[in-house]
Structure formats: C-alpha cells, structure tokens
Design brief:
Elements: H1 3-12, H2 17-27, H3 34-43, H4 46-61, E1 64-68, E2 70-73, H5 101-109, E3 117-120, H6 130-143, E4 148-151, H7 154-163, H8 168-178, E5 182-183, H9 193-199, H10 206-218, E6 222-229, H11 235-252, E7 255-262, H12 278-291, E8 297-298, H13 302-305, H14 307-313, E9 320-323, H15 346-354, E10 359-362
Parallel strand pairs: 1-9, 1-10, 2-3, 3-4, 5-6, 6-7, 7-8
The structure holds ligand V47 and iron/sulfur cluster (SF4).
Iron/sulfur cluster (SF4) binds near residues 88, 123 and 124.
Length: about 375
C-alpha cells in the first residue's frame, strides 16, 4: 500500500483529527498507546478500523490465510471450578464425561496421517495429576512421534503444578520432557482482577496465567493467547488485557497467535447478557490486530463464530482460521456457537479462503507452510 496516498485519503475523510493521528502512527509502524486503543474502540467507525487492521495484516502476512489439519481431545468436563460463563463443565451441562486413556488413544489412532496437531484441553478434573498427563503425552508420541501436542491451558497447568507442589517452571519442564510442544491460549478470559473475580473467581489469576506463559516461553514452549469478551467487561478491561499480552510478548516473543473469543450466552449463568453484534466482533478483531503489533498472527476461530463470520473477519485483520477440527470440540456448541458440529474438510477450508480472494496456506503448529 502506498502510505502517502493512504495518508492523503485519510486527511480528506470527515473524521476527528485524533483518529487521523492514530492512522498516521499505524502507517508509520509506530505503536499505539492504551488511550489511543480506547479511542479506537469508542469512536472509530468499523470501516476505518478495518482499513487500519488490514494494513497491519498485510504488512505481516501478505494475503496468506493460514490453517492446519488438527483435531481436539477433551479428556473430561468434570471441573473443580464454576466459571459464570461456562456451559461446558459438568456443573452446567447435562452430559458429563471422563475419558479413559485407551479411548483417547483410540481417537488418535483413528486420525488420518495428514493430521499434524492434537489440541488437548478440557476441564480441571479434581483427581488428575501432572504425571497422568505426562504419561498420556508419552503414549501419544509413541504412536505418532510426528504429531504436535498443543495441550493444557494455563488454568489446567496452574492446578496440576499446585497439586503436585512443583513450580510452574519444573512442571512445564517435566511436561516438555514428556512431549508437550506448545500450549493453547485458553483460560486468559479477562485479566482485570475485579472482572475476573466476578466471572471466574476460583481459577488461576491473570498474573498466574501470564507467569505460566512467560515460563513456557523461557523453556522454548510457544503458546497462544485468548481474550473472552462481550460479557461484563468494558473497553478499558479489553485494552489492559491487550497491553499485558503485548508487554509479555516484548519480553519473550513466545506467542504465536491471539484469539479473541466472543462470549456465547446459551446454557450458562450469564445467559441474561445479550451477545455482541457482528460489528462489535469485527471492531474487536481490528483493534486487537492494531494493538498487538508484536503478535505475528490473529486467529478467527471459526467453530465459535461460524464460517461466514470467519470469512468476514479476514477483512478485519485475521490471517489464521485455526484448523479442520474434525467435529472434536464441544466447548462452543454447548454455549450456542455458530457451528453445532464443527468439522471442515481441507478442500472446504481452501474454498472458504479463496472465495474471498485470499491465499490458503496449510501450516504446521509453528506456522511453517506444510
Ligand atoms: O478459556 C468458555 C472460552 C476457552 C465460553 O490456543 C467460552 O489455538 C465463549 O482457549 N462463550 C477455551 N467462549 C478455548 C480456547 C481455544 C480455542 C481455540 C483455539 C485455541 C488455541 C484456544 O473457551 C476458555 C474460555 O475463554 N469459553 N465458555 C462461552 N460461553
Ligand atoms: Fe471449568 Fe474451564 Fe468451565 Fe471454568 S471455563 S468451569 S475452568 S471447564
């Protein structure tokens, strides 16, 4: 994009100078500050945000849209916690499960050899131990030494380490030794302590979530980050969440992708909250893309937002659509997500991306083209 021409076009638009100044910063590859982030959320028209986010996306990823062949294993939904937004755990879900190791290995064995990644996460079971997961990972690698294990949210790791009375560093070192390759972004919710106390008071704090990811990055375990938005938080809480992630990424460089998670209101205690509009969702993608200037990728998680919204998100900064999934996750279908039985063939994924004039790139878990 010709930056000078963009700036001239922006100067002619009837929008406040403060927003034009932010555009100037974005085009000059300068970081925006929390006040500017807030201003974008509060006052910028969605099209304007989309344009800025698209500039950042293009600078970082060209017209590539990444995806991976993956599947999920959700060992259990029996949970020690009772998060207000959760529709998944046995407290709020009439279905409850606790899979045996043999059953999970059966799921693994039934996968096509072209599947590259297994995403393992679930509820925080009161009796599971660090060594139970360690042994499970060793068995996975015995069957599929090539598969990337992305497993255990920081909330699960926090519980397992505390239960075994080991430091986060030692717990993660042990898991890495058993085959853990990276950790997913779950459990971040909103870091602000007041909001966090209201929606998930008993699980790892925001500071603990960040400490676990910092420790993982130091050990060479990369990770993702999420933000659950559209419940009781305000824009300033979203910005302070993004700020904490940007700061940690400056220190470690260990995050691969940021994944905004839209709150879905079915079958949970926060069902009185109206879900955010599609405009709000796109604004949230765009501000995230602009703010997190040091995150290589922004993921639109299609099982949660649906396929059409995923396509639209590609015009608001998103460059990654996660994976083909194989109908293997229940976290969102219980909460009323866009996709009830999420699964997509590789050719469907490619079609979804090419239909909006982008270049589909099948990747591995660390974004190397396959
Ligand atoms: O932490 C739970 C969210 C997360 C609801 O790293 C809800 O690649 C919306 O983190 N409405 C777990 N969201 C899933 C997760 C994830 C998903 C996809 C990819 C990756 C990755 C990570 O799901 C939880 C919570 O924030 N969640 N309930 C709900 N009602
Ligand atoms: Fe448990 Fe996770 Fe649900 Fe919270 S969101 S109750 S930690 S399964």
């Amino acid at each position: 994009m010709d930056i000078l021409r963009s700036l001239n076009t922006i100067s002619a638009l009837k929008i406040p100078d403060s927003l034009k100044e932010i555009a100037g910063k974005v085009f000059a590859d300068q970081r925006i500050n929390p006040q500017e982030g807030l201003l974008l959320f509060r006052t910028a028209p969605p099209g304007y945000l989309g344009m800025l986010a698209e500039f950042v996306r293009q600078q970082k990823n060209g017209n590539n849209v990444y995806f991976i062949r993956n599947f999920h294993i959700e060992p259990t939904n029996i949970c020690v916690n009772k998060c207000e937004f959760c529709s998944y755990s046995h407290h709020f879900n009439p279905k409850s499960w606790d899979l045996k190791v043999e059953e999970m290995l059966g799921i693994l064995k039934s996968q096509d050899q072209s599947v590259r990644e297994v995403h393992i996460t679930g509820a925080v079971h009161p009796e599971k131990e660090l060594t139970w997961f360690g042994d499970f990972f060793l068995m996975i690698k015995k069957i599929r030494p090539d598969i990337h294990i992305k497993a255990l949210s920081a909330v699960e790791i926090d519980f397992l380490c505390k239960k075994s009375k080991v430091t986060f560093e030692n717990g993660l070192k042990y898991l890495k030794g058993c085959g853990l390759d990276s950790i997913p972004g779950g459990g971040a919710e909103i870091f602000d302590p007041v909001i966090r106390k209201k929606i998930c008071s008993t699980k790892a704090t925001g500071a603990e979530w960040l400490a676990i990811h910092a420790s993982a990055h130091q050990l060479g375990i990369s990770s993702n980050a999420t933000m659950l938005y559209g419940h009781i938080e305000q824009y300033e809480h979203r910005i302070s969440h993004l700020e904490a992630l940007r700061e940690l990424q400056d220190q470690t460089g260990g995050f691969n992708a940021f994944i905004p998670l839209k709150f879905r209101n079915r079958n949970n205690k926060l069902n009185f909250i109206k879900e955010t509009s599609v405009i709000e969702d796109m604004k949230n993608y765009a501000v995230s893309r602009i703010y997190l200037d040091n995150f290589p990728h922004l993921k639109g998680y299609w099982p949660m937002i649906g396929k059409s919204m995923a396509q639209l998100s590609l015009s608001f900064g998103v460059d990654d659509l996660d994976g083909t999934i194989n109908d293997s996750t229940k976290i969102y279908s219980e909460a009323g997500s866009g996709e009830q039985n999420p699964a997509m063939t590789t050719s469907e994924m490619v079609g979804l991306i090419t239909q909006v004039n982008r270049i589909p790139v099948e990747r591995d878990s660390l974004y190397k083209p396959a």
